[in-house]
Structure formats: C-alpha cells, structure tokens
Write a structure and sequence with these properties.
Length: 357
C-alpha cells in the first residue's frame, strides 16, 4: 500500500512537472499580453528541466515505464533546452573579426566617491572593438563620476554615442555604444519606456556598414528591499510575504507585457535594416521568453548558443541566476570565443565574443 501510494504521488508530480515544462516552452510563442502564465513558467524553465532529469533517474532506478513521460517531455522541449543550456563549441573562422562586449554596468556606481572604477577598468582591459553599455550612468557633481570623467576614461574609443534620461537626483542614466571604428549614423528606437531604451549605430568596418543595436528592455522594477525579502521569505511573517509576492508579481506581469511590445518594435526595425546586424543588450528576459524569441526571429543567431558551453547566467544576484544579457548577430556572420565574465562589479556579468564576417 505504501509503495502504491509513493508511486501514485510520483506519477502525479511528474505529470504536473511535465505539464509546467511544456507550458513554459510555449512562453516563446504566447505573448504575455494574452497570458503571463507561460512567461512565469518560462522563467523557471531551467529548474523544470532539472526536475525532469531527476525523474528520469528516479524511474530508471525503479525500472518503471513511467520514465517515458520525462523523456518525451525533454524531447519535445529540446530546442528551448538547447537555448538555455548551450552545447555549442568554439570553432575557428576566417574573415574580418570584430570583438564585441555587452555590459549592464549598474550606473558605474557613480554615486560613490570618485576613485579608480573597477567596472570601467574591466571594460578597458577587455579591449573590445565595440562595447554596448546599459545603465550608463553619470553624476552632475564633480566629486562623483561625471560625463566628462567617463569620456576621459574611455578615451581609447574615438566614437561614442549615448542616450540618457535625467534622474531626479541630479544624475543621468541610459545606453551607450563605444566604437573604435567610425560611426557614420546613429539613432533611437522608440520603445515607449520612461527608464529603458534602445539605440543603434551604423559602424563602418573594413569598407562595409554594420548596424549595432544596444537594447535595454523594460525592467521588472523590483526594489532591493523586495529582493531581500524574497531571499529570506521563510524568515518574514505570512502577511509581509504575501504583500511582497503580490507586489513583485504585479510588477513582473506589467513588465512582461511591456517587453512583448518592445520586442515586436525591435524585430520590425531589424527586418527594415539592410545591413548586417549585431544586437547586444539586457533583455530582462530569459532565452525561453516571447521577447527573446521575437527579437531573434529568423534573422539572428545567438552567439552564446553558437560558441559557449553550459548555462552561462548573466544576472548574478542570489536566487536570480538567469541569462538575460544577449549578443545576437546576422546569420551570414559567425560568433566565436563567447565568454561570460566573473567579476561582480555590477549586478550583471559582462558578456563578450568575436563576430567573424
């Protein structure tokens, strides 16, 4: 009787996990405007895959045909699993090569007293040809990191464009593209956001023009207090836990819907572009998401999937280890030497690769 009860419970639990995994897979195709449930399950897709693997091991040990359920689930979800856990390999390629870096720098910590900034130093040491920065921040106060100070720090990059929003505390934040090659045209992609943005630059490289998009899609706007509460959810009262979960869920649902619309706008801009494309940025969404799937479309390849191995999460806060920063490129080019940095100067790790044309 005990054995029957255990197996019945295991089968039911496995069925629920399989259903959630398959629903999470559909996050790529179902816009959060219509339903946010797949988006939430897509966020936890890596963990659902891990549980399915655990069930395979469990049923293998027990020698039960129920093993077919998690195996079939993983087969159906293989494309999404492949994007989440890369099994790419770093091959050699011949051609003109651009070293590209993307980094959400968390405003360079410009609100701290001026000193040798580790974030800036790490970017300079990477020596990338093109650097796309999200949350490029500067202060109006001379004893902090100013716009002039940033330009001096990045003097090795002759061409710099940025879009910034003024904050209420005498500071600016926005997106920037740094290039060692001439920027012959640049512009703003209007995505209807007060705090986030998308810019692009047409860069002259080896006689050809390449369009570089730098994207920072809608943030979830979860406060540091809410993050700390979620990390210590067992230590707070039920009332406080319910309050923060409700607040976070509401913010995330709204952000999912905003990113869906923003991704569709970016996809349209990519389709209209007649040049080869490199797209970098903090999408604030995982590879199993409508925003990622829409932006990538049929035109772009994921540099991480192409030339990296493993999970490669880029958001480095406890309990929030997700790969939300991306480098994509046109199909006629090739990505090699994809790397995820390991220095936690920001709440994101930098990512970099080489694009061969």
């Amino acid at each position: 009787m005990i054995r029957f009860t255990v197996y019945t419970f295991a089968v039911l639990l496995n069925g629920i996990v399989a259903f959630c995994t398959l629903t999470g897979k559909m996050a790529c195709h179902i816009s959060p405007i219509h339903s946010v449930i797949p988006a939430y399950l897509g966020l936890f897709f890596p963990y659902l895959i891990a549980v399915n693997v655990a069930f395979i091991l469990f049923w293998a040990i027990k020698r039960k045909l129920y093993i077919l359920l998690p195996i079939l689930t993983l087969i159906i979800c293989f494309p999404e699993t492949r994007r989440t856990f890369s099994i790419g390999y770093d091959s050699q390629a011949e051609g003109d090569t651009l070293a590209v870096m993307s980094y959400n720098v968390q405003m360079f910590e410009f609100f701290t007293p001026l000193k040798k900034n580790q974030t800036i130093q790490s970017i300079i040491e990477t020596d990338a040809d093109i650097v796309c920065i999200q949350e490029y921040g500067s202060s109006d106060h001379s004893d902090r990191l100013t716009k002039k100070g940033l330009k001096e720090a990045f003097s090795g990059y002759k061409y710099i464009i940025f879009k910034e929003n003024d904050l209420s505390w005498e500071a600016q934040i926005g997106e920037a593209i740094l290039s060692k090659y001439p920027i012959i045209n640049h512009g703003l992609v209007e995505i209807n956001s007060e705090t986030n943005g998308v810019i692009y630059a047409d860069i002259l490289f080896k006689g050809d023009t390449i369009r570089v998009f730098n994207c920072h899609l809608e943030s979830n706007k979860i406060t540091e207090t809410e993050k700390k509460t979620l990390q210590k959810i067992k230590e707070v009262s039920t009332q406080d836990a319910n309050k923060v979960v409700s607040s976070v869920s509401k913010k995330m649902s709204e952000s999912y819907r905003n990113r869906a619309l923003q991704a569709e706008i970016i996809h349209q801009k990519i389709e209209e572009t007649r040049y080869p494309v490199i797209l970098c940025g903090d999408l604030n969404d995982v590879p199993v998401s409508y925003a990622y799937h829409t932006i990538r479309g049929d035109q772009l390849k994921d540099a991480f999937q192409e030339s990296a191995f493993g999970y490669g999460y880029t958001y480095n806060k406890k309990l929030f280890h997700f790969r939300i920063d991306q480098i994509m490129h046109s199909k006629e080019s090739k990505a090699i030497q994809f790397k995820v940095g390991d220095k936690d100067y920001s709440d994101h790790y930098p990512i970099s690769c080489k694009i061969v044309f």
